[in-house]
Amino acid sequence: MKILRTPQQGTAILVTAVLFFLDGGCMVNKVKKLDVSQVQQPQQEHLVGVTTKTGNEIGFDPPGGKINRDMIEAKVKNVPYSVAMQDVQRLWVERRGVSAARTIGLTVGIAVVAIGTFVAIVLATKQSCPFVYSWDGSQYVFDAEPYGGAITRGLERDDYSELEHLREQNGLYRLLLTNEVDETQYTNLMELWVVDHARGSRVVSDEHGTLRSYTGIQKLSAARDRDGNDLLLWLQATDRKIWEPDAVAGPDGSLRQEVVLTFPKPADAIQVNLIANAATGLWGSYMIKRMVELHGRDTAAWLASLDNDPAGLQVIHAWGEREGTYRLPIEVEEATGWVVRGALPNGGPLLAEDRAILLDVSHVRGSQLRIRLQPPVGYWAFNSFAAAYGSGQAVNVSRVAANSARTSDGKDVLQDLAAADDRYYPMPDTTDQAEVTFLAPTRKAGQDRTVFLHSRGWYQLHLRDNGAPDLATFNKILTVPGAAVQFAADRFSEWRQGAVR
Predict the structure, then answer these.
(1) Are the beta carbons of 405 and 190 closer than 8 angstroms?
(2) Quick one: three-class SS letters along 433-500?
(3) pLDDT tens, residue by residue, 337-369
Protein backbone atom coordinates (compact mmCIF):
# COMPACT_ATOMS: atom_id res chain seq x y z
CA MET A 1 0.00 0.00 0.00
CA LYS A 2 1.12 3.56 -0.67
CA ILE A 3 0.48 7.09 0.44
CA LEU A 4 0.13 9.84 -2.12
CA ARG A 5 -0.09 13.54 -1.45
CA THR A 6 -1.92 15.21 -4.31
CA PRO A 7 -0.93 18.51 -5.96
CA GLN A 8 -3.68 20.73 -4.59
CA GLN A 9 -1.57 23.32 -2.88
CA GLY A 10 1.03 25.79 -4.02
CA THR A 11 3.32 28.66 -3.24
CA ALA A 12 5.29 31.10 -5.34
CA ILE A 13 8.48 29.76 -3.75
CA LEU A 14 7.75 26.06 -3.85
CA VAL A 15 4.53 24.49 -4.99
CA THR A 16 4.12 20.75 -5.32
CA ALA A 17 6.29 17.66 -5.03
CA VAL A 18 5.25 14.33 -6.52
CA LEU A 19 7.12 11.20 -5.52
CA PHE A 20 7.26 8.09 -7.68
CA PHE A 21 7.95 4.86 -5.83
CA LEU A 22 10.96 2.89 -7.08
CA ASP A 23 12.40 -0.43 -5.95
CA GLY A 24 9.64 -1.24 -3.47
CA GLY A 25 9.43 2.26 -2.04
CA CYS A 26 13.05 2.50 -0.95
CA MET A 27 14.31 5.04 -3.46
CA VAL A 28 12.14 7.83 -4.83
CA ASN A 29 12.35 10.49 -7.50
CA LYS A 30 11.10 13.83 -6.23
CA VAL A 31 9.73 16.35 -8.69
CA LYS A 32 9.69 19.80 -7.10
CA LYS A 33 8.14 22.82 -8.74
CA LEU A 34 10.45 25.63 -7.70
CA ASP A 35 10.21 29.34 -8.29
CA VAL A 36 12.94 30.29 -10.79
CA SER A 37 14.54 32.62 -8.24
CA GLN A 38 15.00 29.71 -5.82
CA VAL A 39 17.01 27.52 -8.22
CA GLN A 40 20.55 28.80 -7.83
CA GLN A 41 22.14 26.64 -10.57
CA PRO A 42 19.39 25.58 -12.99
CA GLN A 43 21.96 24.30 -15.50
CA GLN A 44 22.88 21.55 -13.04
CA GLU A 45 19.31 20.44 -12.37
CA HIS A 46 17.30 17.71 -14.11
CA LEU A 47 14.46 19.76 -15.61
CA VAL A 48 11.34 17.74 -16.40
CA GLY A 49 8.91 20.58 -17.05
CA VAL A 50 7.98 24.21 -16.45
CA THR A 51 5.06 26.39 -15.42
CA THR A 52 5.04 29.55 -17.52
CA LYS A 53 4.04 32.99 -16.30
CA THR A 54 0.87 32.66 -18.37
CA GLY A 55 -0.13 29.60 -16.33
CA ASN A 56 0.66 26.87 -18.87
CA GLU A 57 2.09 23.64 -17.45
CA ILE A 58 4.50 21.91 -19.83
CA GLY A 59 5.90 18.44 -19.09
CA PHE A 60 9.02 17.46 -21.02
CA ASP A 61 9.72 14.16 -22.74
CA PRO A 62 12.61 12.14 -21.25
CA PRO A 63 15.41 12.84 -20.65
CA GLY A 64 14.17 16.37 -19.89
CA GLY A 65 15.15 19.91 -20.78
CA LYS A 66 18.44 21.69 -21.16
CA ILE A 67 19.32 25.34 -20.71
CA ASN A 68 21.01 27.02 -23.66
CA ARG A 69 21.93 30.55 -22.62
CA ASP A 70 18.61 32.08 -21.56
CA MET A 71 16.40 29.45 -23.22
CA ILE A 72 15.10 26.10 -22.03
CA GLU A 73 15.02 23.55 -24.82
CA ALA A 74 13.27 20.18 -24.72
CA LYS A 75 10.84 17.92 -26.52
CA VAL A 76 7.12 17.75 -25.74
CA LYS A 77 5.29 14.81 -27.30
CA ASN A 78 8.23 14.34 -29.65
CA VAL A 79 8.02 17.95 -30.89
CA PRO A 80 10.87 20.43 -30.20
CA TYR A 81 9.92 23.01 -27.57
CA SER A 82 11.71 26.09 -26.25
CA VAL A 83 10.85 28.84 -23.81
CA ALA A 84 12.76 31.86 -22.51
CA MET A 85 13.74 31.73 -18.84
CA GLN A 86 12.20 35.17 -18.35
CA ASP A 87 8.81 33.68 -19.29
CA VAL A 88 9.02 30.83 -16.75
CA GLN A 89 7.50 31.05 -13.29
CA ARG A 90 8.45 27.62 -11.94
CA LEU A 91 10.96 24.96 -12.88
CA TRP A 92 10.04 21.31 -12.41
CA VAL A 93 13.17 19.83 -10.89
CA GLU A 94 13.54 16.06 -10.44
CA ARG A 95 15.87 14.84 -7.73
CA ARG A 96 16.53 11.39 -6.37
CA GLY A 97 16.37 10.63 -2.68
CA VAL A 98 15.52 8.07 -0.03
CA SER A 99 12.03 7.70 1.41
CA ALA A 100 11.24 7.13 5.04
CA ALA A 101 9.50 3.80 5.54
CA ARG A 102 7.19 3.32 8.50
CA THR A 103 4.58 0.78 9.52
CA ILE A 104 1.07 1.18 10.91
CA GLY A 105 -1.15 -1.12 12.91
CA LEU A 106 -2.00 -3.38 9.97
CA THR A 107 -0.92 -6.87 9.02
CA VAL A 108 1.16 -5.44 6.18
CA GLY A 109 3.63 -2.55 6.01
CA ILE A 110 2.84 0.78 4.43
CA ALA A 111 5.42 3.00 2.79
CA VAL A 112 4.90 6.45 4.25
CA VAL A 113 6.82 8.99 2.22
CA ALA A 114 6.95 12.69 2.91
CA ILE A 115 5.30 13.55 -0.40
CA GLY A 116 4.65 17.24 -0.88
CA THR A 117 6.45 20.45 -0.25
CA PHE A 118 9.02 19.21 2.26
CA VAL A 119 12.12 20.72 0.73
CA ALA A 120 13.68 24.18 0.63
CA ILE A 121 11.32 26.65 2.27
CA VAL A 122 9.07 23.94 3.67
CA LEU A 123 11.88 22.35 5.61
CA ALA A 124 12.56 25.78 7.07
CA THR A 125 9.02 26.96 7.59
CA LYS A 126 6.23 24.37 7.78
CA GLN A 127 4.42 24.94 11.06
CA SER A 128 0.87 23.69 11.34
CA CYS A 129 -1.57 20.92 11.90
CA PRO A 130 -1.72 17.17 11.42
CA PHE A 131 -2.08 15.60 8.00
CA VAL A 132 -5.03 13.37 7.17
CA TYR A 133 -4.85 10.81 4.37
CA SER A 134 -7.89 9.12 2.81
CA TRP A 135 -7.88 5.54 1.53
CA ASP A 136 -9.01 5.70 -2.11
CA GLY A 137 -9.22 1.93 -2.65
CA SER A 138 -5.56 1.39 -3.51
CA GLN A 139 -3.51 3.95 -1.59
CA TYR A 140 -3.66 6.69 1.03
CA VAL A 141 -3.96 10.18 -0.45
CA PHE A 142 -3.29 13.48 1.34
CA ASP A 143 -6.79 14.91 1.83
CA ALA A 144 -7.00 17.27 4.84
CA GLU A 145 -4.93 19.56 7.03
CA PRO A 146 -7.22 20.53 9.91
CA TYR A 147 -7.22 23.27 12.58
CA GLY A 148 -4.34 25.35 11.26
CA GLY A 149 -3.32 28.22 13.53
CA ALA A 150 -4.59 26.58 16.74
CA ILE A 151 -1.21 26.91 18.45
CA THR A 152 -2.41 26.63 22.03
CA ARG A 153 -5.35 24.95 23.74
CA GLY A 154 -7.16 28.25 24.10
CA LEU A 155 -7.23 28.42 20.29
CA GLU A 156 -8.50 24.83 19.89
CA ARG A 157 -11.11 24.71 17.17
CA ASP A 158 -13.31 22.53 14.99
CA ASP A 159 -12.53 21.93 11.35
CA TYR A 160 -14.64 20.65 8.47
CA SER A 161 -12.71 19.11 5.57
CA GLU A 162 -14.19 17.59 2.45
CA LEU A 163 -12.53 14.21 1.82
CA GLU A 164 -12.44 14.19 -1.95
CA HIS A 165 -10.39 11.00 -2.26
CA LEU A 166 -12.13 8.84 0.36
CA ARG A 167 -13.62 5.62 -1.03
CA GLU A 168 -15.44 2.81 0.71
CA GLN A 169 -13.78 -0.60 0.78
CA ASN A 170 -15.32 -3.68 2.37
CA GLY A 171 -17.89 -1.50 4.12
CA LEU A 172 -15.28 0.76 5.70
CA TYR A 173 -13.88 4.25 5.27
CA ARG A 174 -10.26 4.47 6.37
CA LEU A 175 -8.20 7.52 7.33
CA LEU A 176 -4.57 7.88 8.34
CA LEU A 177 -3.69 10.67 10.81
CA THR A 178 -0.01 11.65 10.88
CA ASN A 179 2.34 14.17 12.43
CA GLU A 180 5.02 15.20 9.92
CA VAL A 181 6.29 18.48 11.38
CA ASP A 182 8.18 19.63 14.46
CA GLU A 183 5.31 20.08 16.92
CA THR A 184 3.06 18.14 19.25
CA GLN A 185 -0.46 17.72 17.90
CA TYR A 186 -3.49 17.09 20.12
CA THR A 187 -6.50 15.69 18.30
CA ASN A 188 -9.72 15.74 20.31
CA LEU A 189 -12.33 14.45 17.87
CA MET A 190 -12.61 12.71 14.52
CA GLU A 191 -15.97 11.85 12.97
CA LEU A 192 -17.34 11.67 9.45
CA TRP A 193 -20.26 13.71 8.14
CA VAL A 194 -21.77 11.83 5.22
CA VAL A 195 -24.15 13.63 2.85
CA ASP A 196 -26.12 11.94 0.06
CA HIS A 197 -27.49 14.64 -2.23
CA ALA A 198 -29.03 15.23 -5.62
CA ARG A 199 -26.80 14.46 -8.56
CA GLY A 200 -25.16 17.52 -10.02
CA SER A 201 -25.42 19.53 -6.82
CA ARG A 202 -22.38 20.50 -4.79
CA VAL A 203 -22.15 20.41 -1.00
CA VAL A 204 -19.88 22.95 0.68
CA SER A 205 -19.23 23.78 4.33
CA ASP A 206 -18.95 27.22 5.82
CA GLU A 207 -16.31 27.83 8.49
CA HIS A 208 -18.75 26.86 11.27
CA GLY A 209 -19.66 23.47 9.81
CA THR A 210 -23.00 24.36 8.24
CA LEU A 211 -23.35 22.19 5.13
CA ARG A 212 -25.58 23.22 2.24
CA SER A 213 -25.94 22.10 -1.36
CA TYR A 214 -25.70 24.43 -4.34
CA THR A 215 -26.65 24.26 -8.00
CA GLY A 216 -26.19 26.74 -10.81
CA ILE A 217 -22.77 27.74 -9.52
CA GLN A 218 -21.32 30.68 -11.44
CA LYS A 219 -17.73 30.70 -12.60
CA LEU A 220 -15.54 33.77 -12.60
CA SER A 221 -15.97 35.99 -15.63
CA ALA A 222 -12.89 38.09 -14.81
CA ALA A 223 -10.14 38.37 -12.20
CA ARG A 224 -7.36 40.96 -12.04
CA ASP A 225 -4.69 42.05 -9.61
CA ARG A 226 -3.77 45.62 -8.60
CA ASP A 227 -1.62 46.06 -11.71
CA GLY A 228 -4.35 44.90 -14.06
CA ASN A 229 -2.80 41.48 -14.68
CA ASP A 230 -5.30 38.83 -15.74
CA LEU A 231 -5.68 36.19 -13.00
CA LEU A 232 -8.54 34.25 -14.55
CA LEU A 233 -6.34 31.32 -15.55
CA TRP A 234 -5.10 31.07 -11.97
CA LEU A 235 -8.39 31.46 -10.09
CA GLN A 236 -11.12 29.94 -12.25
CA ALA A 237 -10.67 26.31 -11.13
CA THR A 238 -9.34 24.28 -8.21
CA ASP A 239 -6.15 22.93 -9.73
CA ARG A 240 -2.36 23.16 -9.56
CA LYS A 241 -2.27 26.85 -10.44
CA ILE A 242 -2.28 28.77 -7.15
CA TRP A 243 -1.81 32.53 -7.01
CA GLU A 244 0.48 33.45 -4.12
CA PRO A 245 2.75 36.51 -4.27
CA ASP A 246 6.09 36.37 -2.48
CA ALA A 247 6.47 38.47 0.65
CA VAL A 248 8.09 41.32 -1.25
CA ALA A 249 6.96 44.85 -2.04
CA GLY A 250 5.47 45.70 -5.40
CA PRO A 251 6.99 48.25 -7.79
CA ASP A 252 5.23 51.03 -5.86
CA GLY A 253 6.55 49.77 -2.50
CA SER A 254 3.19 48.38 -1.41
CA LEU A 255 3.11 45.18 0.66
CA ARG A 256 -0.55 44.59 -0.04
CA GLN A 257 -1.97 43.12 -3.23
CA GLU A 258 -5.45 43.60 -4.67
CA VAL A 259 -7.61 41.00 -6.38
CA VAL A 260 -10.90 41.97 -7.99
CA LEU A 261 -13.23 39.08 -8.83
CA THR A 262 -16.11 39.55 -11.28
CA PHE A 263 -19.15 37.28 -11.60
CA PRO A 264 -22.38 37.54 -13.59
CA LYS A 265 -25.27 38.52 -11.29
CA PRO A 266 -29.03 37.90 -11.62
CA ALA A 267 -31.08 41.08 -11.34
CA ASP A 268 -33.01 39.87 -8.29
CA ALA A 269 -30.05 38.48 -6.30
CA ILE A 270 -29.85 39.59 -2.68
CA GLN A 271 -27.45 36.93 -1.32
CA VAL A 272 -24.48 35.06 -2.71
CA ASN A 273 -22.24 32.36 -1.32
CA LEU A 274 -18.66 33.00 -2.37
CA ILE A 275 -17.12 29.54 -2.66
CA ALA A 276 -13.46 30.13 -1.98
CA ASN A 277 -10.60 27.67 -2.18
CA ALA A 278 -7.89 29.60 -0.37
CA ALA A 279 -5.39 29.09 2.41
CA THR A 280 -2.83 30.74 4.60
CA GLY A 281 0.36 31.19 2.59
CA LEU A 282 3.31 29.03 3.55
CA TRP A 283 5.32 32.07 4.61
CA GLY A 284 2.34 33.35 6.57
CA SER A 285 2.18 30.03 8.38
CA TYR A 286 5.84 30.34 9.29
CA MET A 287 5.26 33.85 10.60
CA ILE A 288 3.01 32.45 13.33
CA LYS A 289 6.04 30.82 14.89
CA ARG A 290 8.38 33.73 14.27
CA MET A 291 6.01 36.27 15.84
CA VAL A 292 5.26 34.03 18.81
CA GLU A 293 8.98 33.50 19.37
CA LEU A 294 9.42 37.22 19.97
CA HIS A 295 8.49 36.32 23.57
CA GLY A 296 11.85 34.53 23.78
CA ARG A 297 12.28 32.38 26.85
CA ASP A 298 8.79 33.44 28.04
CA THR A 299 7.03 32.09 24.94
CA ALA A 300 5.68 28.89 26.47
CA ALA A 301 4.35 30.75 29.50
CA TRP A 302 2.71 33.40 27.31
CA LEU A 303 0.96 30.80 25.15
CA ALA A 304 -0.24 28.95 28.25
CA SER A 305 -1.62 32.19 29.66
CA LEU A 306 -3.88 32.57 26.62
CA ASP A 307 -5.69 29.35 27.51
CA ASN A 308 -7.50 31.20 30.28
CA ASP A 309 -7.56 34.67 28.75
CA PRO A 310 -10.60 35.14 26.46
CA ALA A 311 -9.91 38.88 26.18
CA GLY A 312 -6.35 38.23 25.06
CA LEU A 313 -7.53 35.73 22.46
CA GLN A 314 -10.08 38.22 21.16
CA VAL A 315 -7.32 40.81 20.70
CA ILE A 316 -5.39 38.30 18.56
CA HIS A 317 -8.46 37.41 16.48
CA ALA A 318 -9.31 41.08 15.94
CA TRP A 319 -5.72 41.81 14.91
CA GLY A 320 -5.75 38.95 12.38
CA GLU A 321 -8.84 40.35 10.65
CA ARG A 322 -7.83 44.01 10.91
CA GLU A 323 -4.48 43.32 9.27
CA GLY A 324 -5.87 40.69 6.91
CA THR A 325 -3.13 38.27 7.95
CA TYR A 326 -5.15 35.26 9.12
CA ARG A 327 -8.65 36.43 8.30
CA LEU A 328 -9.19 38.49 5.18
CA PRO A 329 -12.04 41.02 4.76
CA ILE A 330 -14.20 40.55 1.66
CA GLU A 331 -15.48 43.73 0.01
CA VAL A 332 -18.44 44.04 -2.35
CA GLU A 333 -18.72 46.91 -4.82
CA GLU A 334 -21.96 48.82 -4.25
CA ALA A 335 -23.32 52.13 -5.53
CA THR A 336 -21.55 53.95 -2.70
CA GLY A 337 -18.22 52.14 -3.18
CA TRP A 338 -16.53 49.12 -1.66
CA VAL A 339 -18.21 47.73 1.49
CA VAL A 340 -16.96 44.89 3.72
CA ARG A 341 -19.59 42.13 3.66
CA GLY A 342 -17.71 39.13 4.99
CA ALA A 343 -14.33 37.58 5.71
CA LEU A 344 -12.23 34.76 4.31
CA PRO A 345 -11.13 32.31 7.03
CA ASN A 346 -7.62 30.92 7.16
CA GLY A 347 -6.64 27.32 6.47
CA GLY A 348 -3.90 25.12 5.13
CA PRO A 349 -1.18 26.07 4.27
CA LEU A 350 -0.47 22.95 2.21
CA LEU A 351 -4.03 21.95 1.40
CA ALA A 352 -6.82 24.46 0.93
CA GLU A 353 -10.48 23.61 1.57
CA ASP A 354 -13.57 25.00 -0.14
CA ARG A 355 -15.48 27.36 2.12
CA ALA A 356 -18.82 29.03 1.49
CA ILE A 357 -19.01 32.64 2.72
CA LEU A 358 -22.48 34.20 2.64
CA LEU A 359 -22.46 37.81 1.42
CA ASP A 360 -25.20 40.44 1.20
CA VAL A 361 -25.44 41.68 -2.40
CA SER A 362 -28.80 43.41 -2.11
CA HIS A 363 -27.15 46.82 -2.64
CA VAL A 364 -25.31 45.80 -5.83
CA ARG A 365 -26.67 47.34 -9.00
CA GLY A 366 -26.30 46.03 -12.54
CA SER A 367 -25.62 42.61 -14.03
CA GLN A 368 -22.16 42.12 -12.52
CA LEU A 369 -20.95 41.33 -9.03
CA ARG A 370 -17.47 42.61 -8.16
CA ILE A 371 -15.68 41.38 -5.08
CA ARG A 372 -12.38 42.79 -3.83
CA LEU A 373 -9.70 41.16 -1.68
CA GLN A 374 -6.60 43.01 -0.48
CA PRO A 375 -4.27 40.32 0.86
CA PRO A 376 -0.97 41.25 2.51
CA VAL A 377 1.79 39.63 0.48
CA GLY A 378 3.16 36.37 1.84
CA TYR A 379 0.10 35.59 3.94
CA TRP A 380 -2.40 34.14 1.44
CA ALA A 381 -2.63 31.60 -1.36
CA PHE A 382 -5.67 31.65 -3.70
CA ASN A 383 -6.65 28.66 -5.82
CA SER A 384 -10.21 29.27 -7.02
CA PHE A 385 -13.41 31.26 -6.51
CA ALA A 386 -17.00 30.61 -7.60
CA ALA A 387 -20.40 32.08 -6.71
CA ALA A 388 -23.70 30.45 -5.79
CA TYR A 389 -26.65 32.85 -5.51
CA GLY A 390 -29.19 32.30 -2.78
CA SER A 391 -28.69 30.59 0.56
CA GLY A 392 -28.42 27.04 -0.79
CA GLN A 393 -30.40 23.97 0.21
CA ALA A 394 -30.31 22.25 3.58
CA VAL A 395 -28.95 18.68 3.51
CA ASN A 396 -29.34 15.60 5.66
CA VAL A 397 -26.09 14.77 7.42
CA SER A 398 -25.26 11.30 8.75
CA ARG A 399 -22.72 11.64 11.53
CA VAL A 400 -20.53 8.56 11.73
CA ALA A 401 -18.39 7.93 14.79
CA ALA A 402 -15.06 6.15 14.42
CA ASN A 403 -15.26 2.38 14.50
CA SER A 404 -11.59 1.86 15.39
CA ALA A 405 -8.48 3.94 15.93
CA ARG A 406 -5.09 2.32 16.37
CA THR A 407 -1.59 3.78 16.37
CA SER A 408 1.43 2.42 14.53
CA ASP A 409 2.57 0.60 17.66
CA GLY A 410 -0.84 -1.00 18.19
CA LYS A 411 -2.29 1.31 20.85
CA ASP A 412 -6.08 1.73 20.84
CA VAL A 413 -6.92 5.46 20.85
CA LEU A 414 -10.57 5.21 19.86
CA GLN A 415 -11.87 6.83 23.04
CA ASP A 416 -9.41 9.70 22.66
CA LEU A 417 -11.06 10.63 19.36
CA ALA A 418 -14.69 9.78 20.20
CA ALA A 419 -15.96 13.11 21.53
CA ALA A 420 -15.08 16.76 22.08
CA ASP A 421 -13.96 16.44 25.69
CA ASP A 422 -10.81 16.49 27.82
CA ARG A 423 -9.31 13.39 26.15
CA TYR A 424 -6.82 13.86 23.33
CA TYR A 425 -4.70 11.72 21.09
CA PRO A 426 -1.27 13.39 21.37
CA MET A 427 1.35 13.09 18.62
CA PRO A 428 4.65 14.56 19.86
CA ASP A 429 6.92 12.98 17.23
CA THR A 430 7.10 13.03 13.44
CA THR A 431 6.82 9.22 13.48
CA ASP A 432 3.40 9.29 15.17
CA GLN A 433 0.38 8.13 13.23
CA ALA A 434 -2.90 6.31 13.66
CA GLU A 435 -5.31 4.58 11.32
CA VAL A 436 -8.96 5.42 11.98
CA THR A 437 -11.83 3.47 10.40
CA PHE A 438 -15.54 4.22 10.05
CA LEU A 439 -18.50 2.05 9.03
CA ALA A 440 -19.78 3.38 5.70
CA PRO A 441 -23.54 4.13 5.65
CA THR A 442 -25.61 2.52 2.93
CA ARG A 443 -25.73 4.72 -0.15
CA LYS A 444 -29.00 6.21 -1.33
CA ALA A 445 -29.82 5.16 -4.88
CA GLY A 446 -29.58 7.82 -7.55
CA GLN A 447 -27.69 10.31 -5.37
CA ASP A 448 -24.14 11.60 -5.14
CA ARG A 449 -22.20 11.35 -1.90
CA THR A 450 -19.88 13.88 -0.28
CA VAL A 451 -17.98 13.03 2.91
CA PHE A 452 -16.54 15.54 5.35
CA LEU A 453 -14.18 15.04 8.26
CA HIS A 454 -15.28 16.90 11.38
CA SER A 455 -12.22 17.15 13.59
CA ARG A 456 -11.19 19.20 16.58
CA GLY A 457 -7.82 19.88 18.14
CA TRP A 458 -4.80 22.11 18.60
CA TYR A 459 -1.03 21.84 18.35
CA GLN A 460 1.98 22.95 20.37
CA LEU A 461 4.97 24.41 18.58
CA HIS A 462 8.36 23.02 19.55
CA LEU A 463 10.11 26.22 20.53
CA ARG A 464 13.81 26.47 21.23
CA ASP A 465 14.35 30.20 21.61
CA ASN A 466 15.75 30.88 25.09
CA GLY A 467 16.72 34.47 24.36
CA ALA A 468 15.44 37.69 25.84
CA PRO A 469 11.88 38.69 24.90
CA ASP A 470 11.44 41.36 22.24
CA LEU A 471 8.08 42.67 23.38
CA ALA A 472 8.58 46.02 21.69
CA THR A 473 8.53 44.36 18.26
CA PHE A 474 5.66 42.08 19.24
CA ASN A 475 3.55 44.95 20.52
CA LYS A 476 4.34 46.94 17.38
CA ILE A 477 3.07 44.06 15.26
CA LEU A 478 -0.18 43.98 17.24
CA THR A 479 -0.81 47.72 17.30
CA VAL A 480 0.79 49.39 14.28
CA PRO A 481 -1.06 48.96 10.96
CA GLY A 482 1.10 47.14 8.43
CA ALA A 483 3.80 46.15 10.92
CA ALA A 484 3.00 42.42 10.65
CA VAL A 485 3.36 42.49 6.88
CA GLN A 486 6.62 44.44 7.08
CA PHE A 487 7.92 41.94 9.65
CA ALA A 488 7.12 39.07 7.26
CA ALA A 489 8.74 40.85 4.33
CA ASP A 490 11.89 41.54 6.35
CA ARG A 491 12.14 37.91 7.43
CA PHE A 492 11.60 36.78 3.83
CA SER A 493 14.42 39.00 2.66
CA GLU A 494 16.67 37.53 5.35
CA TRP A 495 15.68 34.01 4.36
CA ARG A 496 16.54 34.69 0.74
CA GLN A 497 19.94 35.86 1.88
CA GLY A 498 20.43 32.69 3.90
CA ALA A 499 19.88 34.29 7.30
CA VAL A 500 16.79 32.24 8.22
CA ARG A 501 17.66 28.82 9.64
Answers:
(1) yes
(2) EEEEEEECCCCCCCEEEEEEEEEEEEEEECCCCCCCCCHHHHHHHHHCCCHHHHHHHHHHHHHHCCCC
(3) 999 999 999 887 888 899 999 999 999 999 999
